[in-house]
Amino acid sequence: VKELNLAKIYYKNVENEEEFAKYSSLAQKDILKKEALYSLVNGKTSGFLNWMYNDNWGCGTWAVVDKYFEAKPAYYALKEAFAPFVIFYFDSSFYIKNSTLEEKEVEFIYGSSEFDLSKRNENRVLANLKPNEIRKIDFTNKDNLPYLFAYLNVDGSSYQYIDIKKEFDLSDYGNDIETSIVENSSSYLKIKIVAK
Questions:
Q1: Which segments in the chain show pLDDT lower than 50?
Q2: What pTM was computed for the model?
């Protein structure tokens, strides 16, 4: 029942077993990744342990590997949360994390925008991140724009963060389109737009 309720809260009412498997797995992915990242910055947690790595039988559990030893979406979300460099947004701040054992010079570009980029707020920071450092960068989305973005450039590689507010209104884009959310997660939003 817990997994069913979380699928409803995060995505939509589930109408069959296939939707239950899909949306409860996506909700698990979002929740576990946010829990892992929150444990890094809340100032009270000294570690993070994922309970139940694999399922014993096919059922709705918090395991990240199913009974057939196939990785669930949450497995990859936790892998992202503990990658060498991570960007996340929490409580009106971006956080950038260097999990390597070396100090790194980074370029951090972050901000918010409209979907069509007609309005964009962008900030740029150059910094040296010490080994295992988590750097907090305050950012308030003053204009309440629907699209948050961030890019971390380090050693010729680029890491990105994208988040779209779940509550957004496309009515400003005209009455001649119909939209629906096809899939939503902390990593991406897939929107179906149909001309009327």
A1: 167-196
A2: 0.72
